[in-house]
Specification:
Helix content: over 70%
Distance between the termini: 37 Å
Order of helices and strands: HHHHHHHHHHHHHHHHHHHHHH
Radius of gyration: 23 Å
Largest sheet: none
Number of helices: 22
Oligomer: single chain
Number of strands: 0
Shape: globular
């Protein structure tokens, strides 16, 4: 696959435009210096459309687009549960979590842990999240993004890593979160348009004179098993999507952890100008998540007919891009690059936020505001450089090592959800109970993983997460009752919290629930 001159021109126009826009929205008045609130929290003035778009831009990257298209090719529509159930999770976060976070002026997730439990958990989790974001998230976006660039253009993969890293860093380095969030509406618009175009053309190619609707009907007719949302135990992909667990089990734990307590996701909502504005942004993001399977799963399913003999599933999306005419190919490729750049910029911004506010500022307590911004920029540069240097060693020749890292992060997810959920909604939760949940989650997950690896016990990952969550929750409650918190430990205000939401938010929630009932009823 290659790009024509006009395709490359479109890509260049996109790059110049998005860089210029980022600098324009980041401008300061003459004589003003950026404060840490300006840089890390966009002056706490983000509008709803920026919040919603930025949530999706931070979430969707090369691994989502290429990986989920590949999963659509292999598993089918069932993989869309990750997207569709996330929409409902977002509404829960908006209604029940954000009122507490914004009432307490929370800026980072480690900050919440300190105010709720104490400094020990804050420091441990701050370091954990930094390592996770740099060595898993940044490296994976750089590596998989470079693979996408190489697959489409033939551009050297190592050079692509550098190009992606430098551009993502450069366009947000001056403006911080404001540069990222206020340009993400363009990034997401491009992503949605590009995805809809490739899906429409793929289905139209299948349908011939009947168009996209006929192509979709052909796909359902020829591959009805690929439209099962709830997989039975005899399905070869039951381990990845273990039946009813996608509705009632561990997927909830993973979604709540990701959308509710993940710094590079929730930071956008924390930077809202008000709680209602944040909730409108959350609702906007939920509807974009409902649309995502059309963009990232459907092209892979179309490849079942148009490219039935792919050597690897991850070739599905780039192969479908080959259907596009000159010009449109450049637009869709620009959309893919937009997803990569936006997601990487989001991770880097959150790395600099956690490092500066949760670690550096706690050690150097009298640091001036302008110096905190400088430290944040240095941390962003360091994160990207480390990511570029370690992407190939971690992912190039050691695929199993990376898979182990992903599995390893899953060891923490149940414990993280327990810690935050008890911290938000149970006043008697103590630091001892929280530490018990964190340690218990890792130990129990490791035991299940070892049993799985040695073949002694086959247990789907999603079910494992659910079981570990329940056990960690029970253990945390028992220990909190036995070892109560110190009287002055609780600094989070849980009084005067209103969970009442606007009519618009409530109608949006009804719409999401109705949609989920409809699709799961049709394709159960």
């Amino acid at each position: 696959m290659s790009l024509a001159g006009i395709d490359l021109a479109i890509l260049a126009i996109y790059a110049i435009f998005i860089f210029g826009l980022a600098q324009w929205v980041s401008r300061s008045k003459a004589g003003e210096q950026k404060t840490s609130t300006d840089y890390f929290m966009a002056s706490k003035s983000l509008p709803w459309w920026a919040i919603g778009a930025s949530l999706i831009a931070a979430n969707i990257s090369a691994e989502q687009i290429i990986g989920m298209s590949g999963s659509g090719y292999v598993i089918g529509l069932g993989i869309a549960s990750y997207e569709w159930m996330a929409a409902l999770t977002l509404l829960i976060v908006g209604k029940f979590f954000l009122p507490i976070f914004l009432r307490n002026e929370i800026v980072t997730m480690p900050q919440f842990l300190q105010q709720r439990y104490g400094p020990t958990i804050r420091n441990v989790m701050a370091v954990f999240w930094l390592l996770l974001y740099i060595f898993v998230n940044v490296t994976s976006i750089l590596w998989l993004g470079a693979i996408a660039v190489h697959t489409v253009t033939g551009f050297n993969q190592d050079y692509a890593i550098v190009a992606i890293g430098v551009f993502a860093l450069a366009y947000q380095l001056w403006g911080g979160l404001k540069a990222v969030a206020l340009t993400d509406i363009v990034q997401v618009a491009l992503l949605v348009c590009g995805g809809l175009i490739i899906g429409f053309i793929a289905l139209s190619t299948i349908g011939g004179a009947g168009g996209a609707a006929a192509g979709f009907h052909t796909l359902i007719t020829q591959f009805p098993d690929k439209f099962d949302m709830i997989l039975s135990k005899d399905n070869p992909h039951y381990q990845e999507l273990p039946g009813i667990a996608v509705l009632l089990g561990g997927l909830w734990v993973m979604n709540i952890s990701y959308w509710g307590f993940n710094q590079y996701i929730i930071q956008r909502a924390l930077a809202a100008k008000s709680l209602p504005e944040a909730q409108k942004g959350i609702a906007f993001a939920a509807y974009l998540k409902l649309l995502m399977p059309v963009i990232v799963v459907l092209p892979g399913m179309a490849a079942l007919i148009l490219a039935p003999n792919l050597s690897t599933p991850d070739q599905a999306y780039p192969t479908m891009m080959n259907l596009l005419p000159v010009g449109l190919k450049g637009l869709v490729f620009a959309a893919l690059i937009a997803a990569i750049i936006a997601s990487l910029a989001s991770k880097v911004n959150s790395i600099s936020t956690i490092f500066t506010l949760d670690l550096y500022a706690k050690i150097r307590k009298d640091t001036p505001e302008h110096q905190l911004v400088t430290v944040g920029r240095i941390a962003a540069v360091a994160a990207v450089v480390i990511g570029m240097l370690t992407a190939r060693p971690l992912l190039g020749g050691f695929d199993q090592a990376f898979q182990f890292i992903q599995e390893f992060t899953g060891f923490f997810t149940p414990g993280i959800v327990v810690i935050f959920m008890l911290g938000l909604f149970w006043k008697r939760a103590s630091e001892a109970g929280a530490l018990t949940a964190a340690i218990g989650s890792v130990v129990l997950s490791a035991i299940f993983w070892w049993l799985q690896e040695t073949g002694q016990f086959i247990f789907p990952f999603m079910n494992r997460v659910g079981v570990v969550f329940v056990v960690s929750l029970i253990a945390a409650v028992i220990v909190s009752l036995l070892v109560p918190a110190k009287p002055d430990a609780m600094k989070i205000k849980l009084d005067q919290i209103s969970y009442k939401t606007s009519l618009g938010f409530n109608l949006a929630a009804v719409g999401v629930i109705a949609f989920l009932i409809l699709v799961y009823t049709i394709w159960w």
